[in-house]
Amino acid sequence: MQVSDDVGIFPKALWFLHEYGNSNCSSASKDLHLKSVLAKSLANDREMTIEELDGLVGADVFAKFAGDDHRLSEAEISIALETANPSSRLRLAPELRRHAEFLSTSFDMIESSHLDEMDQLSNWIVENWRHDGTLQVLTTCTGNSRRSILSAAMGNMAAAYYGFDNIRFHSGGTIPSAFNKRTIATLQEIGFQINPTGEEALRWDSKTSNPIYSVVWGKDLEATEFSKTYKDKSNPKSGFAAILVCNEADAECPIVPGASLRLSMTFVDPKLYDDGVFEKRKYAERRDDIGRTFLAAMAHARRKLHGREGEAPAKP
User: Fold this and answer.
1) Are 151 and 169 within 8 A, CB to CB?
2) For residue 179, is pLDDT > 80?
3) Backbone angles phi, psi at 150, to 5 degrees
4) Distance linking the first and last C-alpha atoms of the chain
5) Where are the domains of the chain?
6) What pLDDT is recorded for position 40?
């Protein structure tokens, strides 16, 4: 993990346990406990001992990076993080990588109602992921203009951040409209490059244009995005995970044809705040809610895959 020294030792220690600790360390439901243990461990000398970590990391793993004094310093933690850095993380746009780093320190803010679905998504990834294959995830809301597009974009960012550059998120809706300008703005704010291609997709309302956009989140990491149905030909047809991110789509799609996993993971619609003084902050809030949720799911899947020797996505 390439990070600037100015992030401080606490985030680095947190990321160390996400990467090298036991499976509980990457579980969002255990995040507050993890932070409590770390705070006590680092309080006096800004170093960690195996005893202070109270079983969160194996003694052999700890000894691999600790010096002769059997303590982990900030410099040693930084080396350990660099050793585990997946190549796709370095390909992320720098602003996006920093934003992912920031969100990965706040898994305790994830809604408790999402925890079970996150575990199911992590387990599905572990069961189906292969180095030479591609996993597809389809996020769906009603209009395919806000939450489903935010989910696809932040899901792709999260997958690349944790080394899953062969997991791709797509979006769709039940009553498409257009890629909303506010959704574009809040994604651009954190480093996504979003530009119109000059082409237009099918209009679902004769009065509303439906431009096709290029969405780039890093080197060789890009997709085209426009408003469409979840059954659109550009979306996966079989063996994918379907995530319903609004209550209306969840109710309208009790079965998603071709999906091997269907999850209901709903988020409040930022549209409720359109044209008000809180609009920009509410779109950012929803973007980050979704982002940390998918980051936590990917972190947990990555940690579980470390238990399958040779399977975890890693630095080549």
Assistant:
1) yes
2) yes
3) -60, -40
4) 14
5) 5-85, 107-305
6) 96
**Helical H segments across the chain, by residue range:** 9-20, 31-42, 59-65, 74-83, 87-91, 94-103, 115-128, 147-161, 181-188, 247-252, 279-305
What is the side-by-side strand order in the sheet with 167-173? Answer: 167-173, 135-141, 240-244, 259-264
Return mean pLDDT, the chain. Answer: 93
- List helix spans (H) across 23-179: 31-42, 59-65, 74-83, 87-91, 94-103, 115-128, 147-161
For residue 310, count CB atoms less than 10 angstroms from its CB and return exposed for 0-12, middle for 13-18, buried for 19 or more.
Answer: exposed
Give pLDDT tens digits for 127-144: 999 988 999 999 999 999
Q: pTM of this prediction?
A: 0.95
Q: For residue 197, give every residue at least 6 positions away whose Cβ sits within 8 Å of its Cβ, in sequence order, or none.
A: 211, 212, 213, 214, 224
pLDDT of residue 254: 85
From the list 3, 186, 165, the residue with the least C-alpha distance to 97 is 3
The structure tokens listed for 112 are 């408790």
Q: Is the pLDDT of residue 224 over 50?
A: yes
Contacts of 44 (CB under 8 A, 6+ apart): none
What letters, b where the CB count within 10 A reaches 16 and e where it falls short, cover 132-141?
eeebbbbbbb
Quick: pLDDT tens for 54-77: 999 999 999 999 988 999 999 999
| Token pair belonging to 235 | 């979306």
Handedness of CA 153, 155, 156, 158 (dihedral sign): positive
Reported as half-sphere exposure (CB side, CA atoms, 13 A), residue 176 has a value of: 22
* Rounded Cα–Cα distance for residues 226 and 93 (Å): 22
Q: How far apart are CA 165 and CA 288, in angstroms?
A: 20
> Hey, what are 217's tokens?
């989140």
Name the one residue in this structure whose structure tokens are 């291609």: 197
One CATH from 3.40.50.1220, 3.90.190.20, 3.60.40.10, 3.40.50.2300 for 107-305? 3.40.50.2300
